[in-house]
Amino acid sequence: MQSLALALAVPVAIGVAYRVGYRAARAREVVNTERAPAAIGPYSQGVKAGGLLFVSGQIPIDPATGEFSGSTIEAQAAQVMRNLRSIVEASGCSMQDVVKCTILLADIADFATVNEVYKSNFSPPYPARAAFAVKALPKGALVEIECVAALP
């Protein structure tokens, strides 16, 4: 009789744990900070979900002025990294928690320059990364970067 009770109880317990875990994994928390530009569309600066932080693509808008921080690729890449850092830190993470970045470039010729700015914001082990040239970026930006971080 105990065997039958155990045989019936285990799948039920696993099912309950799965549903609770599934709901927890689906739970989301929005991350928002005034130290980064406000979203310019229907999206959040960042979202915590499933033990990860997903940071929306950042362009070089200075949150204090609402304008681009400069016209050169160096200035724009530096502002993008400041914006990413602000959102990452507002979530309780650090740049060392970043595990993946995606870089979008208006001109692939800017890859090496952006790479130097990017490198100065991380230390080994560096996050996984992809970089692409795209036809155009929002507001005519030269660079946009998004990232994913592991929550501590």
Automatic annotation (TrEMBL):
Transmembrane segments: none annotated. InterPro entries: RidA (IPR006056), RidA_CS (IPR019897), RutC-like_sf (IPR035959), YjgF/YER057c/UK114 (IPR006175). Pfam families: Ribonuc_L-PSP. It comes from Diacronema lutheri. It comes from the Eukaryota. One of its GO terms (cellular component) is cytosol. GO terms for molecular function: deaminase activity. The lineage of its organism: Eukaryota, Haptista, Haptophyta, Pavlovophyceae, Pavlovales. This is Uncharacterized protein. Belongs to the RutC family.
